[in-house]
Design brief:
The structure is a single chain. The longest helix has 15 residues, at about 120-135. The chain is an alpha/beta fold. A five-stranded mixed beta sheet has the order 1-3-2-4-5, sandwiched between helices. Helix 2 (about 25-30) runs parallel beside helix 4 (about 80-85) and helix 3 packs across helix 5. It has five helices and five strands, in the order H-E-H-E-H-E-H-E-E-H.
């Protein structure tokens, strides 16, 4: 694990734009059981997340968007990340990753290999398309 001072700015990139950091397996269970749509971001210290965090921020600029935004930090918060990954089956562990849930069911997944080597704008466009398909516009 990395010193918390190193990962704090990476956590804050998401919490600043409205993501709730999940710290325990119980937090994960509660967050993914909520009604509506929930976007889970598996955040990470690895260099690939430098594309993921700005892409999700950009995608969230348009409506519709998920009702709930949550995140776990892979390699740092081991227990909540392991619990979140249990909800992502049949997908293999992947970080960074984006998972969209509706009523606790996984409905969209973007894995690391769909993020790597792509422009932020392309990743954001794919996320925004998923939001458009699965999320209800709230008028915000």
């Amino acid at each position: 694990m990395y010193p918390e001072i190193w990962v704090t700015p990476m956590r804050e990139e998401l919490t600043r734009i409205g993501f709730l950091q999940l710290h325990t397996p119980a937090d994960v269970d509660a967050a993914l059981a909520t009604e509506g749509t929930t976007l889970l971001v598996v955040n990470t210290f690895c260099p690939h997340a430098v594309l993921a965090r700005p892409a999700v921020a950009q995608a969230l600029q348009s409506a519709p968007r998920p009702d709930h935004l949550v995140t776990v930090f892979a390699g740092q918060d081991l227990a909540p990340t392991a619990r979140a990954r249990a909800f992502l089956a049949p997908y293999q562990p992947s970080s960074p990753a984006f998972a969209l849930f509706s009523g606790g069911k996984l409905i969209f997944m973007m894995e690391r290999d769909q993020i790597l080597g792509r422009p932020v704008e392309a990743i954001a466009a794919d996320l925004a398309a998923a939001f458009g398909h699965f999320c209800v516009a709230s008028g915000v």
